[in-house]
Design goal:
This is NH(3)-dependent NAD(+) synthetase. This protein has helices at residues 3-21, 34-44, 61-77, 89-98, 106-129, 139-144, 166-175, 180-184, 198-202, 206-217, 227-242, 244-247, and strands at residues 25-29, 50-54, 81-85, 131-133. It is of the alpha/beta class.
Length: 261
């Protein structure tokens, strides 16, 4: 991959989109992870206003610390970067108190609630500052295994890195001089209030899932593989099928014209 040219291409695309949309710049939620670090740096390189928002919800201390340090690094290198923190822990706790307790899928539903509270917060800041919400999803997450929250981190105005695989995001991170602490950290969505990684949840690493995505695109089937490769391919296909509703447009029930007469 021609990393420098890819960075230039994305930055120019971002600048063009802002000009056409008659907005002022970007708002990005900073999690302390690689995707938000790369996305925010690309937005900062446009020279347009960038608001970095921290939105902890019972967050692990290491994640919060990495987010702080990344924003400080951005502000030391780019004059167009501002920051704000909105601690959503109290809002989340109030929500938990307001809903009936249940053991049925509650952990996952509450994890998705965290993402949706953050989306609402980002759009609040976007609205009052005439900014665009820049998404941080990459290709394998957004279009492969659907590892994002519908109307949570999937609710954005534009997606600068959604055509890049996770391994390609890391290549951009090195070129952009993202801190080693973020590059070396295990990927995590941070939605469960603990240190579980993305691989813990998915059952496979991102390089493995990217391989499976490529094999699927080539028309391969699980019968083509054995051992770990067969296991990974099955994981990818299962996740891909289960999360197609996130990737595809919302289905619309079209009413035949003759029924409207």
């Amino acid at each position: 991959m021609q990393t420098e040219k890819v960075i230039t291409h994305i930055v120019e695309w971002l600048e063009d989109y802002v000009e056409k949309s008659k907005t002022s710049g970007f708002v990005v939620g900073i999690s302390g992870g690689i995707d938000s670090a790369v996305t925010s740096t690309l937005c900062a390189k446009t020279g347009l206003p960038l608001l970095c928002v921290e939105m902890p919800i019972h967050q692990e201390e290491k994640q919060v610390d990495r987010a702080h340090k990344h924003i400080e690094w951005l502000q030391n290198n780019f004059e167009n970067v501002t920051r704000t923190q909105t601690d959503l822990t109290g809002v989340f706790d109030s929500f938990m108190e307001a809903i009936p307790a249940t053991e049925k899928n509650q952990d996952l539903s509450l994890a998705n609630t965290r993402a949706r509270l953050r989306m609402t917060t980002l759009y609040y800041f976007a609205g009052i500052n005439n900014l665009l919400v820049a998404g941080t999803g990459n290709k394998i997450e957004d279009f492969g295994v659907g590892f994002f929250t519908k109307y949570g981190d999937g609710g954005v105005d534009l997606s600068p890195i959604a055509d890049l695989l996770k391994t390609e995001v890391y290549k951009l991170a090195k070129e952009l001089n993202i801190t080693k602490e973020i590059i070396d950290a295990k990927p995590t969505d941070g939605l469960f209030g603990d240190n579980r990684s993305d691989e813990d949840q998915l059952g496979a690493s991102y390089p493995e899932l990217e391989w499976a995505m490529k094999m699927d695109d080539l028309g391969k089937t699980i019968a083509s593989f054995s051992g770990r490769k067969a296991e990974v391919f099955e994981i990818y296909k299962r996740l891909n099928r289960a999360n197609l509703h996130k990737v595809k447009p919302i289905p619309v029930c079209n009413i035949p014209l003759y029924l409207k007469k």
